[in-house]
Write a structure and sequence with these properties.
alpha/beta; TIM Barrel; seven-stranded mixed sheet; five-stranded parallel sheet; 27 strands; globular; cobalamin binding
Length: about 700
């Protein structure tokens, strides 16, 4: 039997599908022939690559993108006519997220981030309706016509679709068209959008779908193909010819009832093969040859682990990743190392994105240490928890990790505790500081609108943010928390005082059929909370503060807070607040400042200050000894009062922050960021050094 695996719109076009790449390799290992068709590339070329990217990259459009394909799912002619007459209204309602979170009231009005976003907002208001009506009424019918007549579907026995949350309606639509012309083709779906109750309802409602693979697809798909190869009656009650139960699939019994077979055992990660991306690059080449356009194609995806090691301990309350299985397991580091080498060699790409939910550093410390010796010069991306230490981030940087997505989510310790992030304000600031030091680009969201959050949780952030304008800001605008299936907030709603849970209204626009149970196919839900603050203006203040942070960090005069240390002193250069300042710390102040380069407790600071500094901060030469002796008052141990006074002065100068009895210096080392400092600021630093123009802390 021969398979065709299809990647539909609105899958990303900048890199291949790792899901289909792995399945192709796993099927080949078991002697099963499979091709992969990137119909998302074909469609993107039809509507324009820039437009496709603008639409597919934004979560705001996720409902709209599925709705564009829904006409081919509607079997009732009168309903089809009715839906056709309400297209403009539907488009406007589909992009509104006001019902997504009860904190999104009329009080909340984020403004555009500069001209580029303002232009994009104008595009949304003035052009989106016209563009989408053309795509829906002209481009998509033409796309399906060309696909049906241009793709050799008759060669295949089984046609499978990968379904993420913007691919489900497109996949269902094409499946119906194929089934109408080729009634003997076996149609199956798989992916996170058709897991659990969602897949059961899709299979019940759409008779042209034969099977759905849920959970991990490798073993389930091989077993299903082997069963179909040896059985004429399709599924024979869910048993193969040897009488063993098939696992990991949804199917219909003889009387049409939807059955969920038991799950497949999780596949050992070292059994997961290297993904095969050959068809992606060959299709890219064909499009380039036909159009004369060059397509972005510098990146491939790799996988080293599945599940979430943190979620196994304490799942973040809002998180829905991994669906029904959080169990973490990983490849041996040697296997991951060979995968990276093989992918880079086969596809001649040095940019590789890891699709793991979260890096578990101990599992891959040896891999990260081995990569600098490999001479591969890779540029890697990983998703990480912001608990990585300075030394661990330095190892990542040396290994070629240029970008990370960090699960920071917020800077309020009260909020972070509320959602079980296992983090704090200080830890998150330390993470973005150390990432900036090692030139690792950090992408992260700022989330708000959690059940039971209070305005007071955000008060300190308005003071904090200007102090860290020299570090990477969160993406703008901040995002409301979305209540999602599989999250703890959804599964334990009553315990968190969450009420009135309903599927997002947009689903009814995508699937207007009266006989569908929207609650079963929905991933996102609207909700209410027992306690919502009457005055939600704090969200506007936080949003404006994050906007200002983004503007200053992204401008031509990016703020700088940097230091360089010498024998017994530290020089600090500060342009965060408009006027450039240079500050000199001597003796005990220098010791304390350097000691708090990472988070330190008050007890640790006291011990270090009274013993003469960390070993790496100490210098036996006379200038350092003299300044330290002076700081101690002529050889006496530094008093607690003197240490407390210096800590207060460092905070007053906005060079250090505190949380409870823990302290963190905010400056990064000058030598680590010198090449990223704006020219005018660098000139000011040079002048301060040349003329030794420094202000000092009061004694």
């Amino acid at each position: 039997m021969k398979l065709l695996l299809v990647n539909m719109p609105w899958g990303k076009i900048d890199f291949p599908s790792i899901q289909l790449g792995i399945l192709k390799s796993y099927l080949a290992r078991h002697g099963i022939d499979a091709d992969v068709s990137y119909q998302n590339l074909i469609f993107a070329n039809m509507i324009g690559l820039d437009l496709y990217s603008r639409l597919s990259i934004s979560s705001r459009y996720s409902y709209l993108l599925e709705w564009l394909f829904n006409e081919f799912l509607i079997t009732d002619p009168s309903l089809a006519r009715e839906v056709r007459n309400t297209q403009e209204r539907d488009i406007r309602e589909l992009i509104s997220l006001k019902s997504a979170n009860p904190f999104l009231t009329e009080q909340y009005k984020p403004s555009p981030l500069g001209n580029a976003q303002a232009v994009n907002e104008q595009f949304i208001e003035d052009e989106l309706v016209k563009v989408c009506k053309k795509i829906k009424n002209e481009t998509i019918p033409d796309f399906f016509y060309k696909l049906l007549n241009g793709l050799s579907l008759s060669e295949y026995d089984i046609i499978g679709f990968t379904c993420s949350f913007s691919q489900t309606a497109p996949a269902l639509s094409l499946a119906r068209i194929i089934k109408k012309k080729y009634k003997d083709k076996v149609i199956l779906l798989g992916g996170n959008a058709v897991s659990g109750d969602m897949g059961m309802e899709y299979l019940r409602l759409f008779p042209w779908i034969d099977y759905i693979v849920y959970g991990e697809g490798e073993r389930a798909l091989v077993d299903l193909v082997e069963h179909l190869r040896t059985n004429d009656d399709r599924l024979n009650g869910g048993r193969d010819r040897h009488g063993h139960d098939l696992k990991g699939i949804l199917y219909r019994s003889g009387d049409g009832q939807v059955i969920k077979a038991p799950p497949q055992p999780l596949i050992p990660m070292d059994d997961v093969p290297l993904p095969n991306y050959d068809e992606y690059f060959s299709q890219i080449g064909a499009i380039e040859a036909a159009t004369g356009k060059k397509l972005k194609q510098d990146t491939v995806l790799f996988e080293t682990a599945r599940g979430c090691w943190w979620g196994e301990r304490v799942q973040c309350k809002f998180c829905s990743l991994n669906g029904e299985n959080l169990h973490y397991r990983s490849k041996k580091w040697e296997t991951a190392y060979e995968d990276l080498r093989a992918l880079s060699r086969r596809y001649e790409r040095n940019s590789l994105i890891c699709v793991d939910n979260i890096l578990r550093y101990p599992s891959f410390a040896e891999l990260l240490s081995a990569l600098p010796e490999s001479k591969l010069e890779l540029e890697l991306f990983w998703e990480v928890k912001p608990n990585l230490t300075r030394a661990q981030l330095q190892t990542l940087a040396k290994a070629g990790v240029k970008r990370v997505q960090a699960g920071i989510e917020n800077f309020s310790t009260d909020v972070l505790k509320l959602i079980d992030k296992g983090a704090s304000m200080l830890k998150n600031v330390q993470f973005i500081k150390n990432s900036y030091t090692f030139d690792i680009q950090v992408s992260y969201n700022f989330l708000f609108g959690f059940p039971n959050e209070k305005p007071a949780y955000y008060d300190d952030l308005l003071t904090l943010f200007p102090l860290i304008h020299h570090l990477t800001p969160p993406l703008y605008p901040p995002k409301p928390m979305i209540l999602q299936r599989f999250s703890r907030y959804y599964g334990q709603a009553a315990a968190h005082h969450i009420t009135r849970i309903e599927p997002m209204s947009q689903y009814k626009r995508i699937y207007p059929m009266g006989d569908i149970d929207i609650e079963k196919i929905a991933m996102n839900f609207s909700f209410d909370c027992a306690e919502i603050p009457e005055d939600l203006d704090y969200l506007n203040r936080i949003t404006e503060a994050i906007k200002e942070w983004n503007i200053r960090y992204g401008g031509n005069h990016r703020p700088v807070l940097a230091y360089e240390s010498g024998a017994g002193h530290v020089k600090i250069y500060d342009s965060r607040f408009g006027r450039f300042k240079s500050i000199l710390l001597r003796g005990l102040a220098a010791i304390i400042f350097l000691h708090c380069d990472d988070i330190k407790t008050l007890n640790s600071i006291m011990e270090t200050a009274q013993s003469g500094g960390d070993r790496h901060d100490r210098d036996e030469e006379a200038p350092y000894a003299a300044s330290l002796d002076a700081a101690r008052g002529g050889g006496q141990a530094a008093s607690q009062e003197a240490i407390q006074r210096i800590l207060e002065q460092l905070q007053f100068k906005k060079l250090m922050i505190r949380e409870g009895d823990r302290y963190l210096s905010l400056a990064v080392q000058l030598k680590d960021i010198q090449h990223r400092i704006p020219p005018q600021t660098m000139q000011n630093i040079t002048q301060a050094k040349l003329y030794h123009a420094f202000e000092e802390l009061p004694r």
